[in-house]
Amino acid sequence: MTQSIVVQVGQCGNQVGCRFWDLALREHAHVNKKGIYDEALSSFFRNIDTRKNDGGASQITGGKISTLKARAVLVDMEEGVVNEILQGPLREVFDSTQLITDVSGSGNNWAVGHWTYGSAYREQIVEQVRRAAEHCDCLQCFFLIHSMGGGTGSGLGTYVLKLLEEEFPEVYRIVTSVYPSAEDDVITSPYNSILAMRELTEHADCVLPVENQSLVDIVNKIRHMAHSGKGVSAIKKDCTVISSQGGVSGVEKPFDAMNNIVANLLLNITSSARFEGSLNMDLNEITMNLVPFPRLHYLVSSLTPLYTLADVSIPTRRLDQMFSDAFSKEHQLMRADPKHSLYLACALMVRGNVQVSDLRRNIERLRPTLPFVSWNQEGWKTGMCSVPPVGHTHALLALANNTCVRPTFTDLRERFSKLYRKKAHLHHYLQVEGMEQACFTEALSSLSSLIEEYSQLDATKGICMPDTSRLSIAT
Predict the structure, then answer these.
(1) Cis, peptide link before residue 305, omega less than 30° from 0
(2) Of all helices (H) and strands (E), which one includes residue 383?
(3) Cα angle 30-36-42, degrees, rounded to a multiple of 5
(4) Cβ atoms of residues 213 and 335 within 8 Å
(5) Given strand 58-59, what is the order of strands in its sheet?
(6) Rounded CA gap, 75 and 94, in Å?
(7) Phi then psi dihedrals of residue 178, to 5 deg
(8) Of 109, 112, 214, 452, whose Cβ has the fewest other Cβ atoms within 10 Å?
(9) Range of weakest confidence among 125-134, 191-200, 231-240
(10) In 3-state terms, what secondary structure has residue 292?
């Protein structure tokens, strides 16, 4: 069995990570009734015997669960969120050796996070990640969780990404990046996002971009479903869309529901690594099958049905509707329109009581409506995990490598250019040791090149490659 390590950086990264660990424990507790430390648990958790006084807790490879420790490294240059985690219900899941914190923060400045804190904490970060890796029998993947708009998440987060590539070049790096909305309260977020984008494009194997505004839209949709009066009860108190019960504190915070959706994305993408299934998809297969060109590794994700995120008590919808919803704009974690853009590849990760025949039938039904690139018309990857989300019969995560990400990147470039034309706030960055103005121009050039690559592919939409003529056999 393979293992993965989660590296969560900055306020957003740690809050999302906190929700992931809470929900993952719930899923395993629901399946693992006997409290046995099995292969499923070992993929993301270690089993520790804390009673032995041999200079450190010893790892237990089987038998009953003693003390579970997450395979994680928590990094934040402000102590607030990490301290809340250590005082909350998940405090036993982490120990002090997994935490790297400072007190002053990065001040919404990518350069401070990347150059100042990156240089200062490099050795400590490498040491903690190595220690986590040494506890793995077969380390397959790093999951990095961070935001793009702030200073620590974007700056230090992408510095950590480079470190992972340097120290563990053979281990896959899957990054979940939360992008700011146009109305973000951080004025310098376009700078931070563009500077971070260059690092993601160069050093990640796969990026799952998540837009804040899409999360707001989905949360509103779930709450509307819960209160629409169509035989739907209110959202249950201890449910997966409201995180007041599991993770940080007993008081629900404004971003809890949004963070929870990102955590569900991670739950579903890792489900095949954590549980059995008739057609399990290995994590390395995601990159291998969905990324035809190394720089074009940004995947649009969609979750369906939405009510699995909310524990809303409504009748189970038809399976076919679930597959249709996965390709609609309303269920995506990014504001984009894939049906009017070009698919390079697509993965469907199904959980629960779904048959292979259901999967094949729906792919055949949807195929004519989805424009695939001419050289990869059969670009579907499928995975089936037998364990559904807690309390539900089935769920679906769709991951699409689609040129529809281009408008989001173009919009980000325009917001960057508005500031950069006037050189507004630039001095805050240039006074940081290691930061040069060339970093801005190179980052902008990298993004423009990425947008152009997507544009060139999009321009081929509707162009069909002629079928290769069959050999005629002489008789």
Answers:
(1) yes
(2) strand 380-385
(3) 90
(4) yes
(5) 58-59, 45-49, 67-70
(6) 12
(7) -95, 115
(8) 452
(9) 231-240
(10) coil
